[in-house]
């Protein structure tokens, strides 16, 4: 049963998705997705491979494949995103919406120093000079807990660890103080200890900057650590949703039950 919210709760709304449908090659991939995200809220989206969770994030960010057909509504901070031109979307990405992807090795260019990549959105949107970018890179490196920031901002991605690369990618995503942060499987490539630190960083950032977070994952333990509310996806639909505690303690859909069982049934 698809129990989606069709109305927005009271309070400031950072993101509102209504009846989102995406088709590729004549096949509908997303079947009427609807949900909202309040300002400062942390939302988890969980599901298995092919459930539609990443496609939803790509639709929000305006990064769907060229051949995709999309309908419905995606509003960020009250502005409709569907139908905007590539130039208009580029002005929003990095500024209003920050993105963190699964593998920083592919998200970060191997040929450019980390400091340069951390401040790319700032350079685009605010036209910072070289000295200003360096100071901004050092500040961002400290904000995301990178030790020895002087070395890190001069380093190339292959010269630092996986956890440091992901922190640098997060620094790039939050550099222009976006109101919405999309994180697609941000800890999958990391070991458990590093993963915990990255998730704690997301919580710290959203609390400090009053930034909303959508964390997309296949791991219910990740959702439990970072999110307040969760949507469960299966076959391009939301099949269950509620507070993380409600979902963990009283899951009703078989997909949710299977995800919890896969994680060992742990609520911590």
Can you walk through the features of this model?
This protein has two domains: 1-96 and 178-268, Rossmann fold, CATH 3.40.50; 103-177. The strands form two sheets. It has a six-stranded mixed sheet, with helices on both faces. It has a four-stranded antiparallel sheet with strand order 2-1-4-5, covered by helices on one side. By secondary structure, the chain is an alpha/beta fold. A hairpin with a 2-residue loop joins strand 4 and strand 5 (79-80). It contains twelve helices and ten strands. It starts with 12 loop residues before the first strand and ends in a 6-residue tail after the last helix. Helix 6 (130-143) crosses helix 8.
Write the layout of secondary structure elements.
Elements (H helix, E strand, L loop, with lengths): L12 E12 L2 E12 L3 E5 L6 H9 L6 E9 L2 E2 L5 H7 L4 E4 L3 H4 L6 H5 L1 H7 L3 H14 L5 H6 L7 H13 L5 E5 L7 H18 L2 E6 L2 H7 L2 E6 L2 E7 H6 L4 H9 L6
Parallel strand pairs: 3-8, 3-9, 6-7, 7-8
Antiparallel strand pairs: 1-2, 1-4, 4-5, 9-10
Helix pairs in contact: 6-8
């Amino acid at each position: 049963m698809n129990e989606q919210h069709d109305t927005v709760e009271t309070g400031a709304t950072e993101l509102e998705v209504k009846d989102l449908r995406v088709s590729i090659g004549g096949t509908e991939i997303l079947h009427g997705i609807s949900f909202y995200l309040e300002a400062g809220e942390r939302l988890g989206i969980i599901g298995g491979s092919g459930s539609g969770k990443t496609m939803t994030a790509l639709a929000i960010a305006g990064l769907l494949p060229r051949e995709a057909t999309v309908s419905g509504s995606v509003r960020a901070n009250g502005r409709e995103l569907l139908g905007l031109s590539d130039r208009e979307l580029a002005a929003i990405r990095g500024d209003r919406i920050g993105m963190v992807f699964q593998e920083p090795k592919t998200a970060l260019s191997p040929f450019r120093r980390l400091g340069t990549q951390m401040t790319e959105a700032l350079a685009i949107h605010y036209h910072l000079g070289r000295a200003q970018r360096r100071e901004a890179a050092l500040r961002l490196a400290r904000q995301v807990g990178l030790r020895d920031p002087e070395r890190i901002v001069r380093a190339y991605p292959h010269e630092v660890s996986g956890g440091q690369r992901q922190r640098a990618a997060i620094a790039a995503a939050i550099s222009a103080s976006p109101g919405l942060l999309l994180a697609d499987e941000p800890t999958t490539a990391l070991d458990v200890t590093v993963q915990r630190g990255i998730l704690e960083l997301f919580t710290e950032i959203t609390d400090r900057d009053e930034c909303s977070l959508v964390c997309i994952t296949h791991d219910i333990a990740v959702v439990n650590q970072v999110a307040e509310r969760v949507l469960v996806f299966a076959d391009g639909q939301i099949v269950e949703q509620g507070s993380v505690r409600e979902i963990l303690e009283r899951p009703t859909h078989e997909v949710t039950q299977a995800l919890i069982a896969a994680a060992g049934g742990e609520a911590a």
